[in-house]
Amino acid sequence: CDHTDDTRVQEAGVVKGYPYLVKDEETLLSAVENGGYIKLANDITINGVIIISKDVNIDLNEKTISYTQTQADNNDVPGVRRNYCIFNLTGGSSVVSNGNITYNVNTEEEVSQGRVISIENDAQLVMQGLTITSALRGVMVFDNSQTTIQNCEITSSQDTISGNNVWGPTSMNLIVNIQNSTIKSNNLTAVFV
Predict the structure, then answer these.
(1) How far apart (Å, rounded) are the C-alpha atoms in residues 97 and 99?
(2) What share of the chain is helix, strand, coil (3-state, %, to 5)?
(3) Is the Cα torsion angle 108, 110, 116, 122 positive or negative in sign?
(4) Rounded to 5 degrees, what are φ and ψ at 46?
(5) How far apart, in whole angstroms, are the C-alpha atoms of residue 123 and residue 120?
(6) How many Å apart are CA 131 and CA 174, to the nearest integer?
(7) What is the β-pairing status of strands 14-17 and 9-11?
(8) pLDDT by residue (tens digit) across 47-61?
(9) Closest to 61 (Cα-Cα) out of 84, 91, 40
(10) pTM, whole model, 2 decimals?
């Protein structure tokens, strides 16, 4: 991470500080682990899950984060709820904004699980100005967590926004706030909460 961007960001009149500029998966994972304000300098292809457990603000800076699932099962990643996702929020209050997130599948095996974002354990996520495209699911919200989706376009092959209460009673009490956004599923349900 570096601070070569000398632009300080203000939100509601409060200076948030200088962003950590990230250029690849390694620096992105390190920056997310530390929390704070992060800004992408390049498009980034990731090979695993980005686990967010504390407050973080990720400005995609009109760049793209992409991931391609290449096998049907991923039970060896501790702390990840059921199979694949790009972002797994397990706590904190976070913002992801201003760019693209793409989830692809490249496997001969039947793949039924996988999502772009999983929000759980009372985590909160605000998504602003994102274009999200998923070959599987979009955003799943669990365990008393909440998300606000503002000015986004989210398209998936399966359920696009899901509270998926089939996981049991701990998946109840969800808040999903959608504002000025387009939510589309090509094959299943756009919003299933």
Answers:
(1) 6
(2) 10, 50, 45
(3) negative
(4) -105, 155
(5) 6
(6) 23
(7) antiparallel
(8) 888 999 999 999 999
(9) 40
(10) 0.84
